[in-house]
Amino acid sequence: MTGRPWEQTAAERPAPGGGAGAASTGGAGAALAERSARDPGGDLVAAMLAEPAGRSSPSVYETGRLVSLAPWLTGHGERIAWLVRTQRPDGAWGAPDGYALVPTLSATEALLAVLRRGDGGFARERLGQVAHRGLRALHDTLTGPGAPPPPDLPATDLIVPALTELIAGHLDALRERPDLGDWDAAPRPPLPVGLDGGRLDRVRMLLAAGRPLPEKLAHALEVVGPAARRAVDVGPVGPGTVGASPAATAAWLGPDPGPAHPARAYLEDLVRQYGGPVPCASPITVFERSWVLGTLCRAGVPVRVPDVLTAELRDALGPTGTPTGPGLPADADTTSVTVYALARLGQPVDPTVLRAYDTGEHFCTWPGEDGASVTTNAHVLDALGHLLPYGGPAAPWLASAVDRVTRWLLDQQEPDGRWSDRWHASPYYATCCAVLALTGYGSADAARRAVDRAASWVLAGQRPDGSWGRWSGSAEETAYAVQTLIAAGHRDGAGAAALARGAAWLSEVDDHDGAPELWHDKDLYRPTLIVQAAVRAARWLVRPEAGGG
What we know:
It is built from 20 helices and two strands. It has a two-stranded antiparallel ribbon. The two termini are 35 Å apart. The longest helix is centred in the first third of the chain and has 19 residues, at 124-142. The chain is mainly α.
């Protein structure tokens, strides 16, 4: 084919998913349910249509912020109970390796705020015990010289000083209230080594001076404190969210928002969807749909995609692409996966929408990014490499970008063969993304050697039960390991044996299993359908008739 594929007419485009014509948007109920029973990916499509905002796991950090900032919101008692129930035996919240710092600060601060206010219907003694244990965990293991460094999560350098400051204020007030227990010996959490409040101070001064905040900071608006309330140049967009964040939205609304504000309606809808606790980000419509559909199509999973999904993905792309959620800046990661998914679905768009993120060496997630992302660049390579054969006026830039991103990805490989990334806690995800892109579209001869090294690292990491995982075996990470080995061509010898063990393990676990959260936001989270799509793709690739199991 010659010419630019994004200029094809509707009649020329292949049917989504490679099937016989996609269903129209009408009658999505019974017709879609019947089709889902026949199509391996149909239930995921049905779930995306049923919950257009997307679904993620609840966040301790974000839920704690609502407990502290929005006691007026429906489900306040349920959120407090959820925080109490999810505390670890050691007093912390969240995952290992430093990932517990932010959720433990948030949950502890929230419970101290409830204790001071006397709301939520919980016994003061019980709340005091839980908060004391959180403070002890912060002091003993999560901060100080021996603590693990905070992971590279968005806004950690703002969140940690802000929450530490709030906790110190609560403790000062509680020491004046003997009726609320003995807080004289309660330890104040220190700031982690190498982290200070300098950037938070600068952000607050920017807001106090009436100057606009960078768009990406809206996602963490809650860190500025009372100044967040109805802050100028920051406000609800889309369904009423500020920065695609429940916490930022609650902070912007303030302590008495009134019953009819769209931002309050956004929060009430979110609480109804999740039953009390809330996720880090919502809506995640484009993010969820592009990842799910791109993953299924790449693996060859038969899926019939209603026109509404592809139309909405196309409509989400503006001059600089699409953001993860409303109120956030457009980014190269979500944009490239959307471009790739649409091309796989027979609805290709102009790939030069990604040109704004080209640094000349690699692609930034957004202009001005601190650092760089392996998975963003792998996804860019997927999108540009998939469209490269079509030629057209953009062909020279596409070819140059494919070469440059390939070299950059190869340079980021770690000595043991893995890749790691700032958007996911598990190296199995970053390694899978890099290997899929390099084997599919990489232009350098060295890519083959890098892929073989990655496969060797994956083989060495398999657990005795057949699974893979950073902290324990998980369906998500096992799916990434399986896809890596298959993409690398390791279906013989040790690879075949590893795939057979992995396939057997995957056949016995539920892809709806809730553990663990591995994706990076202000807290770790799990995008439910995206993870299920990864597991579904791996199972499809290792089914006996595919020769992978």
